[in-house]
């Protein structure tokens, strides 16, 4: 890591580079609008933005944009009470409770959490699950509730069989849903009870079963980053710079962001950021530079918070400087 910083200081000084900044909407312009509406407790605008994005076009990113806004749990409760038969307010309330649960848990190791934190974490996730099942029953064709149930299930440790069924329920409705596959990859990570072997196998099978130009190529890069994170210092860099890892990343990029059918639709920005970080760590400077330049300075919090949770843009700039991207 120190080597990367030093290289970044020497190679990163060139003019004409876009200013790096975190894009909270990950390239989706509607995310900012819906987030600002949530901050203003403006349910009418939140509803209009969400209803304009049908489930068939994946509105989970917009739902999380609302769910991450502190205080939403207060005003959305009134909306749910005033609209007892409406599924959308319950869906928004559920997603907010998931984010709110993780706020209570924090990023601290489980051994450092208090009993009160655990209880609050579980209570909020359980409330979210109740609402999500209600939404799924009222709108059986919707993808979002099943996607969100993957997140609650991991926090509540529902077990491998239930977790797998929730993923399958999501992809039956949207076979190449990026968020669902990201959730499933986390579920099969070593840190959540899976293994490196299972994680890599899932990432590769999902990516290469999808058509060329798929966003799911990102899964291969995420799997290598997760493996890198799980290793001690020294072992981590030796792992991700292995020739077979570098080749794996290149193969995934060829099937995804480098493929002629790749389209910069929703989700593209995070995919490029992920490949940029993975290629930089792997020492494939040319590929990393290509990805950094494609992002035009727009930083997604994931995966850069793995390097610097308080300032993802700083991590992005250090790695971009190393590659000259």
Explained architecture:
Helix content is 67%, strand content 1%. The chain has 18 helices and two strands. The chain has a two-stranded parallel ribbon. The N terminus is likely disordered. The chain has 325 residues and is mainly α.
Helix content: 55-70%
What's the β-strand tally? 2
Strand content: under 5%
SS summary, helix count: 18
Shape: globular
Largest sheet, spatial ordering of strands: 1-2
Return the average pLDDT rounded to an integer: 91
Low-confidence stretches: 1-15
The largest pleated sheet is described as: 2 strands, parallel
Rg computed from alpha carbons, rounded to a whole number of angstroms? 20 Å
List the helices and strands and how they pair.
Elements: H1 2-11, E1 21-22, H2 29-39, H3 43-52, H4 60-67, H5 72-82, H6 87-105, H7 115-138, H8 144-156, H9 160-173, H10 178-187, H11 196-209, H12 218-230, H13 235-240, H14 243-255, H15 268-282, H16 285-295, E2 298-299, H17 301-304, H18 312-323
Parallel strand pairs: 1-2
Helix pairs in contact: 1-18, 2-3, 2-4, 4-6, 5-6, 6-7, 6-8, 7-8, 8-9, 8-10, 9-10, 11-12, 12-14, 12-15, 14-15, 15-16, 15-18
């Amino acid at each position: 890591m120190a080597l990367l910083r030093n290289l970044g200081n020497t190679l990163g000084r060139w003019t004409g580079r876009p200013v790096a900044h975190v894009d909270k909407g990950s390239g989706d312009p509607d995310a900012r609008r819906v987030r600002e509406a949530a901050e203003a407790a403006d349910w009418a605008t939140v509803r209009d933005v969400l209803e304009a994005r049908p489930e068939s076009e994946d509105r989970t990113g917009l739902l999380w944009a609302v769910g991450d806004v502190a205080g939403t749990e207060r005003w959305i409760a009134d909306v749910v009470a005033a609209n007892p038969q409406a599924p959308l307010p319950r869906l928004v309330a559920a997603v907010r409770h998931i984010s709110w649960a993780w706020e209570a848990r924090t990023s601290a190791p489980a051994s450092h959490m208090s009993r009160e934190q655990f209880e609050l974490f579980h209570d909020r996730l359980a409330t979210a699950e109740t609402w999500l099942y209600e939404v799924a029953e009222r709108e059986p064709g919707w993808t979002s509730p099943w996607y969100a149930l993957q997140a609650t299930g991991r926090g509540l440790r529902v077990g491998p069989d239930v977790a797998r069924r929730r993923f399958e329920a999501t992809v039956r409705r949207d076979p190449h849903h990026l968020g669902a596959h990201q959730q499933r990859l986390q579920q099969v990570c070593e840190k959540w009870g899976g293994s490196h072997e299972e994680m890599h196998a899932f990432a590769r099978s999902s990516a290469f079963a999808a058509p060329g130009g798929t966003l799911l190529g990102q899964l291969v890069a995420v799997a290598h980053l997760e493996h890198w994170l799980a290793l001690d210092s020294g072992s981590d860099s030796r792992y991700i710079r292995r020739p077979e890892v570098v080749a794996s990343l290149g193969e995934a990029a060829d099937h995804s962001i480098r493929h002629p059918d790749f389209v910069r639709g929703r989700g593209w920005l995070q995919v490029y950021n992920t490949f940029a970080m993975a290629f930089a760590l792997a020492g494939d400077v040319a590929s990393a530079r290509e990805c950094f330049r494609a992002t035009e300075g727009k930083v997604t919090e994931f995966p850069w918070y793995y390097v610097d949770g308080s300032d993802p843009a700083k991590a992005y700039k250090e790695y971009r400087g190393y590659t000259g991207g």
